[in-house]
Amino acid sequence: MGRRILNDALRSMVNAEKRGKAMVELKPISTVMSSFLRIMKNHGYIKDFQVYDPHRVGRITVELQGRINDCKALTHRKDIKARDLEAYRLQTLPTHQNNMSKKIKGKG
């Protein structure tokens, strides 16, 4: 059973926000996590992040801004056709007002 790296990182960020911390260090890292953090930075949820040693286990240091209320990763591994994607998103996500969804396609 593998770890859910993105979900663990997001929960660490939420817990650090609740404790009032300004920075959090995330380990281990993945390319999906760094791309998701880039999206969060563009939307203004975090100030900045830095990736250290991405070719090994690595770590990411995130500067928090205090704007994250709750953040989760839904990691359902299902085959969904493109035309059914919006209906599945509306069914699965708790609310469709204030959320960001990122679609990740596998290679192959």
UniProtKB/TrEMBL annotation:
Query: Signal peptide position in this chain?
Result: none
Question: Where on the tree of life does the source sit, at the highest rank?
Answer: Eukaryota
State the family named in the UniProt similarity comment for this chain.
Belongs to the universal ribosomal protein uS8 family.
Instruction: Tell me which InterPro entries the record gives.
Output: Ribosomal_uS8, Ribosomal_uS8_sf
According to the UniProt entry, its GO molecular function terms are: structural constituent of ribosome
What keywords does the record list, in alphabetical order?
Ribonucleoprotein, Ribosomal protein
Q: Point out the gene that encodes the protein.
A: LOC106767498
Q: Does the keyword Membrane apply?
A: no
Q: Which GO BP terms sit in this record?
A: translation
Q: Which organism is it from?
A: Vigna radiata var. radiata (Mung bean)
Q: Name one GO cellular component term.
A: ribosome
Pfam families reported in the protein's UniProt record: Ribosomal_S8
Q: What is this protein called?
A: 40S ribosomal protein S15a-5 isoform X2
